[in-house]
Amino acid sequence: MAARRTNVNRKHGIAAMRTLLSWSTGKDSAWALHTLRRRPDVTVVGLVTTISEAFDRVAMHGVRRELLEAQADAAGLPLHVLPIPSPCPNEVYERIMGAFVARQAAEGVEAIAFGDLFLEDIRRYRETRLAGTGIAPLFPLWGLDTARLARDMIAGGLKAYVTCVDPRKLPARFAGRRFDLDLLAQLPAGVDPCAENGEFHTFACAGPMFARPIRVEVGETVTRDGFVFCDVIPAKAGTHARLHEHSSKCRGCPPARA
Hints:
The chain is 29% helix and 26% strand. The chain is an alpha/beta fold. The N and C termini lie far apart (50 Å).
C-alpha cells in the first residue's frame, strides 16, 4: 500500500497532492508547470521524461539531455529520466512506465499531470493506464482555447524554439524558429497554434516556471525518420558576448524583464 505524504498548503490550509509532471521539454509542459504551481491543491514534486537510448535525447522533441537537465535545475525540481529504445514498441513503453508509476505510488506520489490540450484519445489512454494505480491523472491545460493559450504563453514570458517539425503538416523552414507572435501569424491555415496535432515540438528556454533562462543557440537542422529536427545547443559565453556587442536581438538569449 502506498505511503501517503500529502503536503499541506500553508497559505490556504488545504491538502496539496504530491504531483509529478510529464515533461517533454516543450512549451505546453512548461506552461503546465506554471499553472500547477498556482494551484493550492497541488505540490509539484518532480518531472518525468523519456529519453531515447539511441540518441540520448528527449523522445520526439530531439532535445539534448544536458538541456533537459538544465530545465529541471532552473525549475528547482528533481528529474526522473526513463530511457526507452528507439523505436519503442508500445508494450515496452507501457512496461517501463508502469514500473515507474508503481514505484512512485509506493513513494507517496498521488498524481501525474500532463500538458494535453484537447485530444480525447490521448487523455483516455492516460486515464486508462493510471486506473487502479493509486495515482490520479491531472490535465491543467485541458480544454483551453489554443489560439488564446499560445498568446498567453508568449505574453506571460515563455520563450521557446521549434525543435521538430512534421513536414507533412508544416513547412520544414519552421524548424529552429522562435515560438513568438510572428511564428503564430505565419502558421498555415489548419495548423493548431499550440501544435496539439503534432505539427511541431518545442524547447522552452525561459519563462515564469524557471528561476533563470537557459541560454541556447540554434544549431544544425537534419531530416530523420520523416521529421525535421533542429538541434538546439547550449550557448557559449563568448558567442553571446560577441552577439551582444553588435545587437540587442540575440536569438538565443531571452530579453531581460523590466
